[in-house]
Amino acid sequence: MTAHSLRRYLFNLPIDCLSLQETLDWIDKAIQKKEPRQHTVINAAKIVLAQKDTELKKSILESDLINADGQPVVWAARWLGIPIKEKVSGSDLIVQLLKLAEKKQWRIFFLGAKSKTLERMIERLKKEYPTLQIAGSQDGYFAKEEAKPIAHRIKATKADILFVGMPTPKKENFIRDYKDIMQVPFSMGVGGTFDILAGQVRRAPAWVQNIGCEWLFRLYQEPRRLWKRYLKTNTLFLYMVFRARLFPHKGS
User: Smallest Cα–Cα separation from 121: which of 38, 63, 113, 209?
Assistant: First the structure.
C-alpha cells in the first residue's frame, strides 16, 4: 500500500505529493490493514545526507509513505516542477495522529530520547490526551545488540503506531531493519519532536515555519549542536537545487 500514483522524485528520492489530511487518511487505512508500514519525512538535511549515505537512502526508498518536511523542500520541489501540495512535517503529523489515536483508541509506543525526556513527555501527553492508549515506551540510548530484543518487546505490546524519536539515520534504519519483527501497522521517525512535546524545546511559530525559517529558530535554541550541520547541509541543498534548475537534463 503506497502512494505511488502521487509519487514524484527529488534528487532521486521519492516524495508523495499528499496534503496533511490525505496523509492522515492514508495512515488510517494502513492501520486498518494491520500490515507493517514505514513512514519517512525528508528535509533539506536528509536529502543531502542521503546522497552519500547508502543505508539512509535505502531506508527512504523502501518507505511506504514519504512526506516533505519543511517549507524549503516544498519550494524547491515546486520550482523544479514537482507539485507538492503542502509541507507535512513530522511535528505537525504527530500531533494530529495523537488526536486521532485518542479518538480511535489506537495503541502508541514511544521509542527514543533520554529517559527523563520520555517520562516528562508522557506525563504531559496523559494530561492533554487523557484516554490515549500508551502501549509502552523505551529511551533511545541502547546498544546495537539490544535493538532486536527491543523490537520483539514492541511487537508484544501490539502497538498500532510507533513513534521513533532518534536522530537521522538511526531512526529510519531501525524501522527498516525491524519492522517485520515489530509488526506495527504504522512506524514513523519523529526526530527531536519528543523534546518539543516534553516542553524542553520550543517549536517555531507558524509564521516562522511559513517563511521557511524553522531551521533558523532551531539554530537559535541549539547553536552549538546545529550550526555546523545547517551551514553545510543548507549550502549543499541550495547548490543542488540551483544546479538542477540550470541543468535539468542532469536530473533532480
Answer: 113
Distance between CA atoms of residues 104 and 223, nearest Å: 40
What DSSP letter does each residue of 120-142 carry, written as one string? HHHHHHHHHSTT-EEEEEE-S--
Residues 47/241, Cβ–Cβ less than 8 Å: no
Instruction: Give the count of beta carbons closer than 10 Å to the beta carbon of residue 162.
Output: 30
- By the 8 A CB rule, do 109 and 162 touch? yes
- Interval 81-101: pLDDT, tens: 999 999 999 999 999 999 999
Tell me: the pLDDT tens digits for 210-221? 666 666 656 556
Q: Which of 58, 48, 55 is nearest to 10 (CA)?
A: 48
Confidence of residue 71 (pLDDT cuts 50, 70, 90): confident
Return the half-sphere exposure (C-beta side, CA atoms, 13 A cut-off) of residue 55.
10
CB 45 within 8 A of CB 121: no
By percentage, how much of the chain surpasses pLDDT 70?
85
The answer to whether residues 188 and 163 touch, using CB atoms and an 8 Å cutoff, is: yes
* All domains of the chain in start order, with CATH: 4-197 (3.40.50)
Using CA atoms, how far apart are residues 40 and 191, in angstroms rounded to an integer? 11
| DSSP structural state of residue 12 | T
